[in-house]
Amino acid sequence: MFAFFPTALAAQDTEQSNFIQIETPWARASIGTMRPSAAYFSLHNSGKKTVLIDSIMSEIAAKSSIHQTTVNVEGIGGMRLVKMIQIGPGESFEFKPGSYHVMLSELKEPLVQGESISLILIFGDASKKTFEVPVLSIGARNAGDK
Amino acid sequence: MKWLVKYIGATILSLTTLTGFGWWQIDGSAQKQQNQSLPAHLLRMNFLMTNHLGETVSPKQLLGKPAMIFFGFTYCPDICPNTLMEITSWVEALGKEVDSLKVVFISVDPERDDVESVAGYLSNFSPSIEGWRGSKNQLAIAGNSLGVKCKRVDTDNSDYSIDHT
Description:
Chain A is built from one helix and ten strands. Chain A has one helix spanning 4-14; strands at 20-28, 37-45, 51-58, 61-71, 77-81, 85-87, 92-94, 100-107, 116-123, 128-136. The termini of chain A are far apart. Chain B is built from four helices and seven strands. Chain A binds chain B through residues 28, 30-31, 34-38, 63, 65, 67, 69, 71, 73-81, 97-99, 101, 103-105, 137-141, and chain B through 20-21, 23-24, 27, 29-31, 33, 36, 74-79, 81-82, 84-86, 88, 117, 120-121, 124-125, 149, 151, 153, 155-156, 159, 161-165.
């Protein structure tokens, strides 16, 4: 038992989840449960190693995916599934409208303005980080909106 | 007011439209484009759709006023609500002058967007924004007439998105 204790502590110190700070999280209110919604936030890696975001989950949605809105040279826009996000040491990564976002679909409950949901980041080393995300109006464009 | 459609005169009808991803000028996240010239004259456009009130509408409804048309779909959780809110802020800034403008949202996803869902979606934004929904064929005609492209793209296992102008 004592032999494992220091090992467990050491493992915690190196978990990728310990090096990520989450700033300005917010999600968009949904239209009922039939239409998907989106969540946004900034991530900062304060560690000395690259951190991988493998996936994102939420209890409120049966399906959560990392998407990127893109526009090609012809002005045609669309959404693409992003398999993994890599954040270098000291770097930040932003999820924001018109760019990277967490798409929450097959909602179990609607996202209601003024309430909050929880998201779980799952890292490349399988460590996890859960955080609260306030739900803003459907027309919100950043975390400072209502 | 680059984004406004210019409609000049009773007989000389011209339409320049900010279609789809008009947010590029606000967010600066897309390449800036040259003004797209539209291939068809409003009176030569021939498509029928249903608006969010259940009324039949055609390009003739766009005559007589400058019109701004936005293409989107209600299953779009990111840029569509963002742009509609942007449009809402423009429309609100116009105050009473908004009555001299026509603002139309056209769904590019008739498979999932019926008239009721378009109406429900738009109820979250300015009441000055009309929602139009047409059959797949009518949407294709509207797209060709207005110089707008849209294409279904599979995203996840059972999901799809619409790439569009």
